[in-house]
Specification:
By secondary structure, the protein is an alpha/beta fold. The protein contains 18 helices and eleven strands. Strand 7, helix 9 and strand 8 form a beta-alpha-beta unit.
Length: 581
């Protein structure tokens, strides 16, 4: 179930007096109405809001006492006094009710995040205002933002031990310096911002590529700044695929928080970007592959109500699991975007293993040694970092790998040139060894031997019939190779060859797959690759077919559901073999 939060009666209380102020309630009204019209709202669960609970007790997680007391005093002041108070801040207006509204937002977002983290909700979208990502610790209000709702929500989830690691993706066209600064020295929160950086608000250098974190947080702050306007779907998808997702999967968060600023959308009066609603939907879809789909979206900017409505509709549709809208990527990337993405990779390759094998293009490679010391800037003394530091991102989990040389004994003794040959997997194994990818600090290797009971693969096999399994085992052990091949041809078997080692190889193939599957579900590894043969996806209940004897993937799917029932309810099998399985 997807959660939704929208409370117009309290959002409208933050209605500023300046008619030129862009953060207006109709932004949210348009989005909510669109969800109703599109019949999406009826499929969502509203998050209840207590009329008596305001979570201002959480403000200290992200703001100083001086700022909190200053803003609290605004609730008892008249319009003239409040106008004087707003002069202290940059691009901020508020009323006597505004700070209370911001505090109520905390109740909404912490409850939403808690429900997502505890799987009462799969994901959620908070239609709230004022926005939050510019709000600072000491100076507080900035750029329409009064309270850093996102930062406080994340810190509270960590305090409640519901999320240890959190990834923030901020696609608002303005750099969220307030949220960045909250976690700049923190290695448990990865902040990634895609924003405009051409003398644009908030007019600070902290939005540049070289601001990559400090101390323990070094490498956990990633800025992708656009130096030109007019960026489209192509540039944003490139940034997500080349930077956000590789780092995101390596970071392996427990929760994803999207700061959904739709001022980067086409038609927004401020952003001057051209991102389509469909593109945002695709980005949300990609982010849902992280943190077991635990995604919390908070509305930030976006100042054309109709555009905001279009974008919210597309994003919510994806959160609900609807098919993705078509995305038409037809033009080449802007050269400045390519340059910026490659610079980000060059800087972040010092911290993330996913970039170690990335090759910089011509024009960037020869300057890489120059850009690192120019870009690596600490927040305190602004000293330049020297290049050459090795990646210090510590991996907490390994990748599983299964391989057993006994599977090489299964071969076609009559036709050695047969394509399903032992060299298929031995060549892969040799290549991985040569690339250093099977070393102990990267990979957890198993040969599948004695890991899975032979009785399970035979007498308790949930996929194949007992008659088929017993006959195959007895037959292959007793017959000589020549008779095996002749008998298979006589019985019109489809694309099958075998020898006296075939059944052992078929059992090992399945055993290896089940072994790494166990390693994934017992948290020994985060993911795994089984380098096995014979293949399995053509094998049927009562017969071998298409080089396959045991349907390895079907056996693994059933094994996962039976052995780990609390973790596995449904299994998705993606088969990209050119032959239908």
């Amino acid at each position: 179930m997807t959660g939704i939060a929208y409370y117009p009666e309290h959002m409208v209380e933050h209605l500023c007096h300046d008619a030129r102020y862009s953060d207006t309630p109709d932004r949210l009204e348009a989005a909510y109405s669109r969800l109703e019209e599109a019949q999406l709202l009826s499929r969502m669960r509203p998050v209840e809001l207590s009329k008596h609970e305001e979570r201002d007790d959480l403000l200290h997680l992200a703001h100083s006492d001086a700022y909190i007391n200053y803003m609290r005093s605004s609730s008892s002041e008249d319009h003239l006094k409040i106008s004087e108070m707003t002069m202290k801040f940059d691009s901020v207006d508020f009323t006597s009710s505004s700070f209370g509204v911001a505090c109520k937002n905390l109740q909404i977002t912490t409850r939403m995040a808690r429900d997502v983290c505890t799987e009462k909700l799969l994901n959620a979208f908070a239609l709230i205002r004022p926005p939050s990502h510019h709000s600072e610790y000491f100076m507080g209000a900035n750029g329409y933002c009064l309270v850093n709702t996102a930062a406080i929500t994340i810190k509270q989830m960590q305090r409640e031990h519901l999320a240890e690691k959190v990834l923030i993706l901020d696609w608002d066209v303005h750099h969220g310096q307030g949220t960045q600064n909250q976690f700049y020295e923190d290695d448990t929160v990865l902040y990634i911002s895609i924003h405009r950086f051409d003398g644009f608000f908030p007019y600070l250098p902290e939005g540049d590529i070289g601001y990559a974190g400090f101390g323990k947080g070094e490498g956990f702050n990633i800025n992708i700044p656009w130096t030109e306007t007019g960026m489209c779907d192509e540039e944003y998808i490139a940034a997500v695929l080349q930077v956000v997702l590789p780092v995101g999967y390596e970071f392996n968060p427990d929760l994803v928080v999207v700061l959904a600023g739709f001022d980067s959308a086409e038609g927004d009066p401020k952003g001057q970007m051209n991102v389509s609603p469909e593109c945002f939907a695709h980005i949300v879809h990609h982010m849902s592959g992280l943190a077991r789909g635990k995604v919390l979206m908070l509305l930030e900017g976006g100042y054309n109500p109709e555009v905001v409505a279009d974008c919210v509709e597309c994003c919510v549709s994806v959160l609900l699991g609807d098919p993705l809208p078509a995305l038409h990527l037809s033009r080449e990337l802007q050269s400045s975007a390519v340059e910026q993405i490659l610079k980000v990779i060059a800087v972040q390759s010092r911290f993330w293993s996913c970039f170690q094998f990335q090759q910089s293009s011509v024009g960037v490679a020869e300057q890489r040694h120059k850009c690192l010391p120019e870009l690596m800037i600490s927040p305190s003394d602004k000293k330049l970092e020297a290049p050459g530091k090795q990646p210090r991102h510590e991996k907490t989990k390994l990748v599983g790998y299964a391989y057993n040389e006994a599977m090489l004994k299964h071969r076609n003794d009559i036709d050695p040139s047969h394509p399903e040959c032992p060299e298929r997997i031995s060549a892969i194994h040799k290549h991985l060894l040569g690339a250093g990818l099977l070393c102990a600090d990267v990979c957890c290797v198993t040969d599948g031997q004695d890991r899975i009971s032979p009785e399970y693969l035979c007498s308790a096999n949930p996929v194949h019939s007992q008659d088929y399994l017993l006959k195959q085992e007895d037959y292959m052990k007793c017959c000589k190779p020549a008779k095996l091949m002749a008998d298979y041809h006589d019985h019109n078997r489809q694309s099958i060859f075998c020898n006296e080692h075939t059944w052992e190889a078929a059992q090992l193939s399945a055993s290896c797959l089940l072994a790494v599957l166990e390693d994934v579900f017992t948290d020994r590894v985060t993911s795994a690759f089984a380098n096995i043969r014979p293949p399995g996806h053509h094998a049927e209940v009562n017969r071998a077919f298409g080089f396959c004897f045991m349907n390895n993937v079907a056996i693994a799917a059933e094994y996962a559901r039976r052995q780990f029932p609390s973790l596995v309810k449904r299994v998705l099998i993606l088969d990209w073999d050119v032959h239908h399985g």
